[in-house]
């Protein structure tokens, strides 16, 4: 069987630096000849890496979109690719950059110009996950059957993600980053980010723009900052209103077997320990000092540290190579309806016993779809993807019952819709899709896919069919809320 | 050491792998490995021997495999799916195991029956057989068959009269093909039981099965059981495969994907 390479780009616009990569994802059959062919992304190959440039800004709170767009165009030429060749990938806006005035506008503008199927993503959780995948922490947790934490520290934020044997279990983002405090070689403070001010105030540190700071004070502050963060990461819990916390998915963190450090701070790992203000200020910020103090703190905890495979480029590699996944290979999709983008996900939770009670199943599905109709009154065609969640035994009886109910409720609530989209947790999309199709006939087209992890509120991009059996999928958590 | 916990029916892949774990360095890791395989790993030992429970479980699984071979599919179960039953020349289960060739040939009576009751030259002929595991049919038929019928409808394919063959081997497809002359034939047959799955089914599919067909001309979807390929998805997939065969007028290794 032919191996299809999918060209994918990743673009990371961070607080201090911007970079991009071009890669090939190889989609290949991994099954034996005696079973239904199943497909996997069998390999990810980096074709091109850009230089790491300083993120072009117009002012402190505005990104220079034109300069980024021009730079990107040049990188495509250098990489030897054309925009139509690009079939997947992501532009991610990370750290403090996401707070810039024109961030949302810019990321969508770039995603549109970066290629047909490049998605715009932002959000600390996703950023943490992608960095954890790009740094090698994700694969390490699978290969060694362990729980690991990857901390990606850039200019504005530190994104920690906990991965247990290839499963993301928690993420938490700290307001810790190299660019939060900027100063020159003489120790004159050039800028203190608003993000770090509450923490500084709480701990009675006074840093004033224009004033000089001593090496000792700066060291004390950064040591305290690192100590605070590592304590939270290792102790496994924190207060919701802790000024150091930017965002989180859960307040209870698991204990870990190993730690990875990626991001710009990870890249400075072998930088000599700074002895003076001018040693620290090589980038006019506190980056080198954070690296050094963080390392000392981690050493005190005596936890196993694994060197990250990628540091500065962990997030961009994650965005370019890990944002796309592959659906199950027995799915249903009517011709001509793919690709499709930005489909909101509505979760329909099905309990095992709902299935025996026809009425309950009807009510569950009806109430979810009705809510969807209220939430997205403007959508006419494919209002949302119905996510069938529930760890139930897949029998034909269940499939049939689901098909009857979905068909009935959908036609009642969306009589004008000509497309229905379903995402199942379990391997049953083809059977369910065909059962619905038999009932609905030609009244609406159908896309029914499975084995993709989504949750309520996510957005989905579904690509064109590959080998007539599987689709590439990008799951996006809400970029800007 | 004797453990008092009652033994359970054979474990299916991934469902209830509750084995006593030895004190390992990475307990979570071992548990994860247990989730990914039905193989008998991390069962522990006493001295140089497996524990009593592990041995009893092994014997129980072995017994289930033997039961699957010697068991019979209930006629009333087949009637639920409108399947009538005919025999191959297998005579008895003992003879069936010794003489695979006899399971490849229908009796004269069976030929007469299917000639009388089945549509001649159908586009798709569906046949169900116990093969080496009657429990494979008991477990999977109710999920495979209706999903298969849906996939035929969606792909605009028409099926002839389905029936059940008792004591069938895979190549009984060829004899049935000679008699009924279908364009494609789907045989849902019980697989040789193993110590992990006693109720696994295969779907063998062949374009114009006739005497003399090579094994390489057949396609198979194997390992259809609750811990393997889900029965509903296997059934749903067959229609797509049939459509390809009819379009390309071939099956087996020559079929392009």
From TrEMBL, chain A:
Question: Can you name this protein?
Answer: Ethanolamine utilization protein EutA
Organism, as annotated:
Aquibacillus albus
